[in-house]
Specification:
Bound molecules: S-adenosylmethionine
CATH topology: Rossmann fold
Radius of gyration: 17 Å
Largest sheet: 3 strands, parallel
Strand content: 5-15%
Distance between the termini: 58 Å
Number of strands: 5
Mean pLDDT: 92
């Protein structure tokens, strides 16, 4: 064993087929995970009230959210932090996986400006409704003021 390995635990990742299968199981028992998987597969997130949010170019892949779900499920701390809410696929996956573990958790997301045209807001309202105070979106800021002449 190297000196590095003695100091730092090695993160063993299951093969992608196993991660994908675990994501399928999570989606089968968790509505939020199912909505997120459907969103990345189709390109559109659908809220239970019928509103939709187009992912467009901010679209994770099923394999990426499968990996995130696994990492979130083994997260050793109560607090997890996500930098870049975007279309909320990572936040939805992390919250779903963390809740399924059954231990106390809080997931905070920081994205001061968000995406243009209010994209991501439908997903954000779903997460607030679904996860309550387990989901915290850090301070948002208005777009910087336009500078005359630029
Ligand atoms: C590729 S998206 C992130 C994808 C997102 N995790 C998802 O699941 O859809 C990038 C996001 O990061 C945000 N961002 C860029 N720079 C940032 C920064 N310095 N701090 C926080 N968010 C940032 C952007 O506003 C954008 O919404």
């Amino acid at each position: 064993m190297s000196q590095f390995e003695e100091l730092t635990p090695v993160l063993e990742l299951p093969p992608i087929a196993a991660l994908s299968s675990m994501l399928g199981e999570l989606a089968a028992r968790c509505e939020a995970a199912a909505r997120c998987l459907q969103a990345v597969e189709t390109g559109t997130f659908t809220h239970p009230d019928g509103r939709t949010d187009p992912l467009e170019d901010v679209r994770l892949t099923p394999n990426q959210i499968a990996l995130l779900a696994h990492l979130a499920s083994v997260c050793p701390t109560e607090l997890s932090i996500d930098v870049g809410f975007g279309m909320g696929s990572s936040a939805t996956t992390i919250l779903s996986a963390r809740r399924s573990v059954g231990k106390p958790f809080e997931h905070r997301v920081y994205d001061p400006w968000g995406l243009p045209n209010q994209r991501g807001k439908v997903v954000e309202s779903f997460l607030a409704q679904e996860f309550g105070d387990r989901f915290v979106r850090g301070g948002t800021r208005p777009s910087p003021p336009a500078v005359p002449g630029f």
